[in-house]
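Section 3.1: Structural characterization of target chains.
Under the original work plan, the team committed to producing a structural model for every single-chain target entering the pipeline before any wet-lab resources were allocated. The record below documents one such target. The sequence was received from the expression subgroup and is listed exactly as submitted; it comprises 95 residues.
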Amino acid sequence: MSISANDIAYIANLARLQLSEAEKEEAAASFANILALIDQMQSADTSDLEPLSHAIESSQPLREDIVTEKNQREDLQKNAPKCEKGLYLVPKVIE
């Protein structure tokens, strides 16, 4: 499948982009490269492969659940306009 200059102009119009002729040619070449890669991937023989439930079939290594940073709530809340009892107070926006 090839992409013509008219196809690029149509896509640019849908995206509300104004492209110069050079940009249209560059976009056409980029689209052609992408479509060639897709064709190459589709030509791979996958008939003897089993589908995966997830892209990576491995267990997640877990780390020990320990605190590694100090509590900085007071330092961070110094910059807030309003705080009360460790919570940020924000103006009501929904009536």
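The chain has a mean pLDDT of 89.
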